[in-house]
Specification:
It is a single chain. The chain has a four-stranded antiparallel β-sheet with strand order 3-4-5-6, with no helix packed on it. The chain contains two helices and 93 strands. It is elongated. By secondary structure, the protein is an all-beta fold. Helices cover 1% and strands 47% of the residues.
Length: 1012
């Protein structure tokens, strides 16, 4: 509250969580400018409040190594520096930097995390190191062989060795012996965070920046470095590499790694870039500076946000929403006036050849990729604007009409080539149709079969066709065909009795099918007028031949081929395309992401077979040709397409996904010519058609191509990335001109100038990303041909030639250690999120078991070698060698203790007694000892400290809200020891009793020793 002499003004808590005691303010200080500094109870940031304007500012006090490091008093001195009590430390804020003050002590810290006695000496641990007392004090830290000073738990093994566990299981364990400390680090399978900010590569490793440090992978093992390894801070904002040298940026400075981390700059940075010569550039959110020079800083020439940074030998490049910026001693700002497709530049990168590439995002969020030619930004060299004439990239059907027009059914609607110009009929322009499945020319008109029915072009506009029965229009059309006598045949999906019918220009006639579930998916006519169709019945496909009166049927057993598509040749033969497939182990698109990889190809087995066809029906097989990419399968939700066409010269054209196979009509065993398709990223060929002028038109998923007998010409839409990709976060130039992209929508793909390809199908993404689309934050190539992608939330993925491998950290291994127990060949770590078994293996170790659970409060080994774990809210588990865990108790057991006589004691958070277990068993194996409620009140002063001395005295301490000191049970009597008796502090954190009966008590105020 604020009192100005007349009135009192209350100020509500600004703490983010309004829990019990959240309103308590242990620290308050007023500045000379009228601002007030407020420290709320707990571990919240300090608040700076201007009472007049109401402005608030959060002030982070820096790392809190202990979970009980709560806020304390505040003081502003005459110089304006702020002094703050944080846990057991005093910190001073001046000039924007915190410094910590500590008095002289034999202890590494006043607040200890664990105590243990190995029979010879007392051991204590803290987040600031370890100490040993055997008549004299000896301290241990990183210089003595510990992996980190942050030590959380201690345990004595059966052989008397002391083991120490650190902040997380990922840090490993350390064993103290005659030769000092031996650290065992368990190789991990992932970085310590699923959120990767940046990545870099050295010849023998990959480096990933995370909020918890720098994770390094050699392709097999992972290791994470943080501030305890020499980094300025744990939260890494950027990482770059040149040769064997790595730099990491943080909000507290920049560090360099060349065998060990050392700080090379105290300046904060949010982005780094290293030039080809090794010059390191940094950006701190406001200014650009070169790290290894005089520290001179230059601010961008306009206020903007820097999204990406790249460096060449002579300049630094910045991607911003206000254009691309270059600094080479002077600033240059590039906008659309200099060739950028949009002023909104989202990513920038430099290739090994020195060429600079930029990604922009247009008004509709459309990705555009350009390169700098020395003066202006220009399109990719492969870009062919003259071919970019279609509105939709995916072409499903082609109709080369007798009047000379060519019609394409595309993802944007119906596109018409008339007198050399393309025009579009779409939903927005009045096209009353759904998804177009078939096109045909009949009755001097163009007909379109769609998912919402049949429509007809009257020369000016599209209109719904007449149906035989009013009110029955709208059934999805599956196929169209025109009989030699001119009738239009229409096939529709099941649901109507007239699902196969024909129109003679005046009326409709229904052709019955034998079963109500049968429907035609493709049909054609012989010269004699027989209808030949591929017909489905539920999941089966057959070939049916209709002579005007009756049907004849041929199954896959008759044909030795599962029929998919067909074509009736003018010479009286029937060509059938069929599929006998074993699916690819990895989608072909991922191969195209590798530098120098071949074009995508299908691995499904497919064939085209030729049969004699006469008035009596289907005859003998004439021949068969196999090719893995023959167009036999359809897109999901789309009926099979038409891959076979016949020329007037007797040639037969069979479409593949990468080429057109041309047969001379007589020899069907092998094509005489193979025409490679020119379209970029064509993965599916959907239709082919011969125009009256003899040109061959081919439809694919990325455009249309036409062959005039000598050369190809292509038509496709301007390159457009999938809408869900969003904008480019990172781009990786390849030596062949391809640009690998990672986007904020989780897209990973390739751009070669003509189109985008990538992981646009859920089946083509790693299984670990099934429910997420983690933004791609960085891309790396290894010489082994692997592509690595770092993500924000999905970990790190490695793409090889055969599979995806995704590295996402195990949440239990990344959590904080709470307890430790050691058996003959295994150590059990209690974790905030479960338990972990570690087995030493020589100089290393391995995680033998990782079991998620609630917070493990305590762990111990009994005299039988079993390990007991107290799990928050889940009771007590007993773990034996090779046996399944046994639940011995339920409830909220906070603490375990082993008595010198082998008995076990348990303290429950909610019960007013201690439980005792005698391993000898029997009816009295379990018993209760009621607590003296005048000394300890369950749920108010929870027992979190428990120990048993050699005289079987019990020692208890509590540390939830009321800190009442140390409680002793001896000779049937309860007694109480507090600071009045010499205890350092009434907040007791741990107790251990030495074999000589000395009681060592860790308190919030330091260590006390009591001799009964």
């Amino acid at each position: 509250m604020r009192f100005d002499g007349d009135t009192v003004t209350p100020f509500a808590s600004a703490a983010p969580s309004e829990r019990l005691l959240a309103y308590r303010v242990p620290g308050l200080a007023a500045a000379s400018d009228g601002a007030v500094y407020v420290a709320y109870a707990g571990e919240e940031p300090i608040r700076r409040l201007d009472p007049l304007s109401g402005d608030r500012e959060l002030i982070d006090t820096g790392p809190r190594l202990a979970r009980w490091a709560a806020n304390g008093a505040l003081l502003l001195d005459d110089s304006g520096a702020l002094w703050a009590g944080v846990g057991d430390s005093v910190r001073r804020l001046a000039g924007g930097q915190w410094s910590e003050l500590a008095g002289p002590s034999d202890l590494p810290a006043n607040v200890l995390t664990d105590l243990a006695h190995d029979g010879r000496a007392l051991w204590l641990s803290s987040v600031s190191g370890m100490a040993r007392f055997d008549g004299r004090w000896q301290s241990f830290g990183v210089a003595d062989g510990l992996p980190t000073i942050d030590t959380r738990a201690l345990a004595v093994a059966p052989d008397g060795a002391l083991w120490a566990a650190f902040d997380t299981p990922l840090r490993g364990l350390a064993r103290y012996g005659a030769d000092g400390w031996q650290t065992l680090t368990c190789p991990t399978a992932a970085p310590t965070s699923a959120a990767i900010i940046d990545a870099a590569q050295t010849p023998d490793a990959l480096w990933f920046a995370t909020a918890t440090g720098v994770s390094r992978s050699d392709g097999v093992n992972w290791r994470t470095f943080d501030r305890r390894d020499g980094l300025p801070d744990d939260a890494i904002t950027a990482v770059v590499a040149h040769g064997d040298t790595v730099w990491a940026a943080t909000a507290r400075g920049i560090a360099r790694y060349d065998g060990a981390w050392r700080v090379v700059s105290d300046a904060p940075a949010v982005a780094l870039a290293v030039a080809s010569g090794g010059a390191l550039w940094a950006y701190d959110g406001r200014e650009l500076f070169r790290v290894d020079q005089d520290g001179r800083r230059v601010a961008p020439p306009l206020p903007t946000t820097v999204r990406d940074l790249a460096a060449t030998g002579d300049a630094v490049w910045l991607a911003t929403p206000d254009g691309a910026l270059r600094y080479d001693g002077v600033w240059t700002v590039f906008t659309p006036a200099e060739g950028l497709p949009s002023i909104d530049v989202t990513a920038i990168g430099a290739g090994d050849d020195g060429r600079v590439w930029a990604a922009t995002s247009g008004d509709e969020g459309q990705i555009e990729i350009v390169t700098f030619d020395g003066a202006r930004w220009v399109a990719h060299p492969n870009r062919d604007v003259a071919a970019e004439q279609l509105a939709g990239r995916s072409v499903l059907r082609i109709l080369a009409a007798p009047d000379g027009d060519v019609w394409l059914a595309t993802s944007a609607g119906l596109e018409r080539l008339h007198e050399g110009r393309w025009s579009l009929a779409s939903f927005a322009k009045g096209l009353p149709v759904g998804y177009i499945r078939a096109l045909a020319w009949a009755d001097d008109s163009v007909w379109a079969g769609t998912t919402t029915g049949l429509v007809r072009f009257d020369g000016q506009s599209w209109q719904p066709a007449e149906t035989p029965t009013p009110g029955q229009s709208g059934t999805p059309v599956t196929a169209l065909a025109v009989a030699p006598t001119g009738e239009l045949w229409v096939a529709e999906e099941p649901g109507r009795s007239d699902r196969l019918r024909f129109y003679d220009g005046a009326a409709w006639t229904i052709v019955p099918l034998p079963a109500p579930t049968m429907y035609v998916v493709q049909m054609d006519f012989t010269a004699a007028g027989q209808l030949v169709a591929v017909v489905r019945d539920n999941v089966r496909a057959s070939v049916g031949i209709y002579d005007g009166q009756t049907w004849s049927w041929y199954t896959s057993d008759n044909l030795r081929l599962e029929p998919q598509q067909l074509g009736a040749a003018p010479d009286g033969r029937l060509w059938l395309a069929g599929l006998s497939a074993d699916g690819a182990t990895l989608p072909e698109v991922v191969e195209s992401l590798q530098p120098g990889a071949p074009e995508p190809s299908r691995s499904d087995r497919a064939a085209v077979a030729v049969f004699e066809l006469g008035p009596a029906g289907l005859g003998e097989e004439v021949g068969r040709f196999h090719a893995p990419d023959i167009a036999t399968d359809a897109w999901p939700g789309v009926v099979p397409f038409d891959p076979i066409a016949f020329g007037p010269d007797g040639r037969v054209y069979v479409a593949g996904h990468e080429a057109i196979y041309v047969f001379n009509g007589d020899d069907v065993a092998a094509p005489t010519v193979t025409l490679e398709l020119p379209l970029p990223f064509a993965r599916l060929t959907t239709d082919i058609s011969l125009a009256p002028d003899g040109r061959l038109w081919v439809a694919t998923n990325v455009g249309a191509a036409v062959w005039d007998g000598r050369a190809w010409r292509s038509y496709y839409a301007p390159p457009r990335a999938p809408e869900w990709w969003g904008s480019v976060n990172t781009l990786l130039p390849r030596a062949d001109g391809g640009i690998v992209l990672g986007t904020d929508g989780g897209g990973l793909g390739l751009y070669t100038g003509r189109d985008f390809t990538g992981l646009t199908d859920e089946r083509e993404r790693p299984a670990e990303w099934a429910q997420i689309r983690p933004p791609i934050t960085a891309l790396l190539y290894r010489d082994t041909g692997e592509l690595w992608a770092a993500t924000d939330g999905g970990g790190v993925s490695r793409l090889t030639a055969t599979e995806w491998q995704v590295y996402i950290p195990n949440a239990t291994l990344a959590a904080e250690v709470t307890a430790l127990a050691a058996t003959e060949g295994r150590l059990w770590l209690g974790i905030k999120t479960g338990r972990v078994a570690v087995e030493p293996v020589g100089d290393s170790c391995r995680f033998a078991a990782v079991e998620p659970s609630a917070w493990v409060n305590d762990a111990l080994r009994d005299r039988q070698g079993d390990v007991w774990l107290a799990v928050d809210g889940e009771g007590v588990l007993r773990l034996g060698d090779g046996a399944e865990p046994t639940r011995e108790l339920t409830g909220d057991i906070q603490r375990l203790a082993l008595s010198p006589n082998g008995e076990l004691w348990f303290a429950d958070d909610r019960q007013p007694w201690l439980l005792r277990y005698r391993p000898s068993g029997g009816d009295d194996a379990w018993s209760r000892l009621p607590l003296d409620l005048s000394l300890s009140t369950p749920n108010i002063d929870t027992t979190t400290v428990l120990a048993v001395g050699p005289d079987l005295d019990l020692w208890l301490g509590g540390s939830t809200y009321e800190h009442r000191g140390l409680v002793r049970f001896s000779g049937g009597q309860w007694s109480h020891l507090t600071t009045a008796d010499g205890l350092a502090d009434n907040w007791v954190l741990d107790v251990v009793v030495a074999p000589d009966g000395a009681v060592w008590v860790a308190t919030y105020g330091g260590l006390s020793r009591y001799e009964p």
